[in-house]
Design brief:
The chain is of the alpha/beta class and 226 residues long. 39% of the residues lie in helices and 21% in strands. It has 2 domains: 120 residues, Rossmann fold; 95 residues, Winged helix-like DNA-binding domain superfamily/Winged helix DNA-binding domain (Arc Repressor Mutant, subunit A, Orthogonal Bundle), CATH 1.10.10.
Length: 226
Amino acid sequence: MRLLIIEDDRDAAEYLAKAFREVGHVADLATDGEDGLGLAQAGQYDVLIVDRMLPKRDGLSVIAALRTEGNETPILILSALGQVDDRVKGLRAGGDDYLPKPYAFSELLARVEVLSRRRGGRTEETAYKVGDLELDRLSHRVSRNGEEIVLQPREFRLLEYLMKHAGQVVTRTMLLENVWDYHFDPQTNVIDVHISRLRGKIDKGFAQPLLHTVRGAGYIIRDGAR
């Protein structure tokens, strides 16, 4: 899931982004209404998380502008303004949900996932399977042939992305943007290192390798037995 967090409190925004990334999602940040509106218009996001009190352009104005131009991306309003009238105003402005501060991240995550599932009637996959390798997004459990595999958060995100695109070549750029949130190539071997570690965990000791390098193109995970 790809999220845009529009929040002027940088510490709070970075905390949220880190929390979402740890559970396998991609999160972009904007700290004022103008930048937030621009990113929302230019990017393809599954859910927007918008604070009401923003510099340059307030949150309700951002939401109204998006709805006026036909942008139907689900929006969750996150605000210290939590009275009934405030919530009603936010929903009438075009918000799909409203969560007052302070909040528990577990509740915010659940609400965001519900909004994402509702969009276009799509149901987001919560589990992936390639051969005898299985990944469950909700429990963060990975196993192969019934044997549990312990992965670090970044390794889990990498494997999830590869399995989501099983049978397809995934390029270095795709991994940088969707797993590392880089929109440029930092010219490091970070991907190679993580691929090597991941391969050691999911393929070592098994007769049939699943993770393959496609020279000059990227990586692919597939059931070679088929």
